[in-house]
């Protein structure tokens, strides 16, 4: 019984950090002093999200309950929390408040759609269909830390792009095959504690280090969109070429 509950503990930890990130963002004040720590908590939640599935597979403790709990937690930690962080630090003072509300709402909505599709549609082996919500949420919450350097219009556009990538059909490589040996599971609490300690001691440095590989991963999807567009253009061109002889025969 305890063994089956261990993966869910990581998932609940993920949810807990997401809620704390929302509270920190809400109480960040005019200087957004807590926003950086809120973003870091989202990133640590991403670490927990990556560990719960691996621990479940290592312990052979996978269950439908754990799957549903994971999805519900992800909506909060990587959908609502990052969108709220971005709204508080970058969108709240915009003149067009309605636009800010809509864009803020679109992100968690697309995240929920992405998770619902993941639960009911079989993905390709070795790939995710659409940008995973933990990656999208971590990018968005970290991107919010650059609100003083990046114009609000660019941040709005970035939020919409990340939202679209989540519900797109672009293939993203997954790393689920990189598992945890059963004998090394006892190390996972140490890894989590170390990550939290680094997050508290070096919040700015850690967030920027994590931001770079996550953005590269997201840009992989934009490259996939370009390939899909080329494929669609070629298909339409072939169909057009096939239709032209038929028209000529009809006129003849």
Quaternary organisation: single chain
| Number of helical segments with 4 or more residues | 8
Distance between the termini: 78 Å
* Helix amount: over 70%
Integer-rounded radius of gyration: 21 Å
Q: Given the C-alpha coordinates, what overall shape results?
A: globular
**Main β-sheet, spatial strand arrangement:** 1-2
The biggest beta sheet reads: 2 strands, antiparallel
Strand content: under 5%
- DSSP, total strands: 2
Low-confidence stretches: none
Content-based structural category: mainly alpha
How much is the average pLDDT?
Answer: 78
Describe it for me?
Its EC number is 2.7.8.8. Its main location: membrane. With 252 residues, the protein is mainly α. It has 8 helices and 2 strands. Strands 1-2 form a two-stranded antiparallel ribbon. The longest helix has 49 residues, at 203-251. The radius of gyration is 21 Å and the shape is globular. The mean pLDDT is 78.
Give the SSE layout:
Blueprint: H1 2-26, H2 35-59, H3 64-91, H4 97-120, E1 127-129, H5 133-143, H6 152-167, E2 171-173, H7 188-201, H8 203-251
Antiparallel strand pairs: 1-2
Helix pairs in contact: 1-2, 1-3, 2-3, 2-5, 2-7, 2-8, 3-4, 3-5, 3-6, 4-6, 5-6, 5-8, 7-8
């Amino acid at each position: 019984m305890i063994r089956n509950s261990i993966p869910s503990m990581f998932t609940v930890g993920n949810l807990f950090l997401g809620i704390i990130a929302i509270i920190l963002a809400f109480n960040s004040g005019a200087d957004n002093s807590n926003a950086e720590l809120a973003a870091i908590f989202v990133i640590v939640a991403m670490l927990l999200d990556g560990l719960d599935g691996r621990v479940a597979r290592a312990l052979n403790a996978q269950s439908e309950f754990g799957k549903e709990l994971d999805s519900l937690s992800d909506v909060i930690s990587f959908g609502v929390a990052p969108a709220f962080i971005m709204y508080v630090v970058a969108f709240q003072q915009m003149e067009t408040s309605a636009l800010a509300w809509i864009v803020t709402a679109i992100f968690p909505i697309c995240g929920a759609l992405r998770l619902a599709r993941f639960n009911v549609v079989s993905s390709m082996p070795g790939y995710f269909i659409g940008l995973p919500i933990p990656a999208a949420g971590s990018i968005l919450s970290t991107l919010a830390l650059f609100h003083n350097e990046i114009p609000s219009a660019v941040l709005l556009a970035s939020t919409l792009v990340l939202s679209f990538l989540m519900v797109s059909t672009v293939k993203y490589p997954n790393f689920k095959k990189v598992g945890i040996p059963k004998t090394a599971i006892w190390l996972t609490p140490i890894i989590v504690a170390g990550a939290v300690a680094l997050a508290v001691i070096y919040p700015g440095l850690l967030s920027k280090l994590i931001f770079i590989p996550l953005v590269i991963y997201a840009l992989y999807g934009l490259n996939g969109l370009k390939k899909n567009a080329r494929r669609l253009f070629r298909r339409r061109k072939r169909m057009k070429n096939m239709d032209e002889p038929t028209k000529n025969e009809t006129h003849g």
